[in-house]
Amino acid sequence: xxxxxxxxxxxxxxxxxxxxxxxxxxxxxxxxxxxxxxxxxxxxxxxxxxxxxxxxxxxxxxxxxxxxxxxxxxxxxxxxxxxxxxxxxxxxxxxxxxxxxxxxxxxxxxxxxxxxxxxxxxxxxxxxxxxxxxxxxxxxxxxxxxxxxxxxxxxxxxxxxxxxxxxxxxxxxxxxxxxxxxxxxxxxxxxxxxxxxxxxxxxxxxxxxxxxxxxxxxxxxxxxxxxxxxxxxxxxxxxxxxxxxxxxxxxxxxxxxxxxxxxxxxxxxxxxxxxxxxxxxxxxxxxxxxxxxxxxxxxxxxxx
Length: 304
Prior knowledge:
The chain is α+β, with helices and mostly antiparallel strands. The protein has helices spanning about 45-55, 60-70, 110-120, 165-180, 190-195, 205-210, 265-275, and strands at about 1-10, 40, 85, 90-95, 105-110, 140, 155, 160-165, 200, 215-220, 230-240, 245-255, 285, 295-300.
């Protein structure tokens, strides 16, 4: 039974490819997506595997690793399960090229509603400092200090939207910078960027951007002798773009095995240990493929 929960926030700093193998579209190697919404996502199994490898790299006590993630397959892996549960990484903010302000952090009513639901699950009575704004058809809601709008118009990629400033978007942007955005070590630049560039789009428009405005990289393999492209060795990879913000619901049960002193760790104690993950790597993780060419670097932040 789940006894405690938190959130893990992932800020993508280099393009991230969490793939699904070959695809049937014009993109040879697409990214993982939710079946119904087609929003980008990263499966929870990949997140949990990376957290375990991080714990091993940071030399967590073996007992803690086994309690959190379960014993290794070669060491009694079927004896008991780990107490840490990682959900899928879901989209919260998706960057889209903008005519003004370079790029906008976009989200939607649907994304914010799901995020609020996920955030409040298991936290009965938790008071959030913002509400999902009322839907305004065919308009982009922006902050009152927006750098994205010009003459009450927002232009994203080649599409224009009538802009409407809303103080509720200020509250959402402020909460994200205070509670979800990782420390990016550039003073207040990125926090101000969120406050001045957040845009809430109609659901269908956001879905289309999340589906068609990802980064597609063409790669080749070079013949070592001829120093030319090998025949048939050209392919395309889809990546989540830099400056995407994802969130991962993290749950904990009470430990399924007693500790050294014969006492069981509670779910709250499990999360206390989990929050130490990444502290020796400046809160960085590498997710997805293409690690040796610098892809998939993400900055993490553990929620309260």
